[in-house]
Amino acid sequence: MRYGMAIDTKKCVGCSDCVVACQTENNIEHGYARDWITETIEGIYPSMELEFRSERCNHCENTPCVRTCPTGASHIIEGGIVKVTHSECIGCGACIESCPYDARYFHTEGWVDKCTFCDHRVANGQDPACVSVCPTYCMYFGDLDDKNSQVSKIIATRKWKVLAPEAGTKPQIFYLT
Ligand code: SF4
Ligand code: SF4
Ligand code: SF4
Question: Which of 37, 80, 89, 113 is surrounded by the fewest CB atoms within 10 Å?
Fold first, then answer.
């Protein structure tokens, strides 16, 4: 079992519903977010395209954030989901420094927070909150080890990219292009 996500950049309209859904589902403090929208211009004039990407922790297979954590607060649970145990976090910031994706932030109470793939929902057979509200249905979540899952099928049939592959972290979020 390895959870992953595919996000179709051809269908994402940058509406930020995924960001708001996450903030609501996970009671994120005002002014903070576990996911965010990035806009980039792809191509060369006159063939240019605006690309929106919904970004968050990539739940990497190779995790510098877990390796550098001195207390074990950063850890990996079933399905490859990378989590932080708030009570064990001493706020040293080593994980924030080591993440190539800027996917973590300091909570105002001193511990580090990030996307959890909504593991509390996934455990009940639901999609993460962001996936469940997307109005263009451009996000796909599931088991990458199951070749019959929707996410595996779409990755097998579409072109995709991961962010910062040169970092060697083996991200588990695939952007369909
Ligand atoms: Fe894109 Fe869907 Fe997020 Fe809107 S909710 S920004 S369409 S991924
Ligand atoms: Fe760790 Fe950053 Fe990868 Fe998330 S995106 S698993 S925080 S290295
Ligand atoms: Fe671990 Fe917390 Fe330090 Fe991050 S800030 S490396 S989670 S103890």
Answer: 37
Give the count of domains, the chain.
1
Domain span at residue 36 reads 3-176
Whether 4 is in the pocket of ligand 2, judged by its Cβ within 6 Å, is no
Spell out the long-range contacts of 70-75 with Cβ–Cβ below 8 A and sequence spacing 24 or more.
Answer: 70/94, 73/111, 73/112, 74/112
> Is ligand 1 within 6 A of the CB of residue 54?
yes
125 C-alpha to center of ligand 1: Å? Answer: 21
pLDDT in tens, 21-50: 999 999 999 999 999 999 999 888 888 989
Predicted pLDDT of residue 134: 98
**Model confidence, pTM:** 0.95
Distances (CA, A) of 100 to 13, 76, 166: 25, 18, 10
> How many Cα atoms are found within 13 Å in the side-chain-facing hemisphere of 96?
14
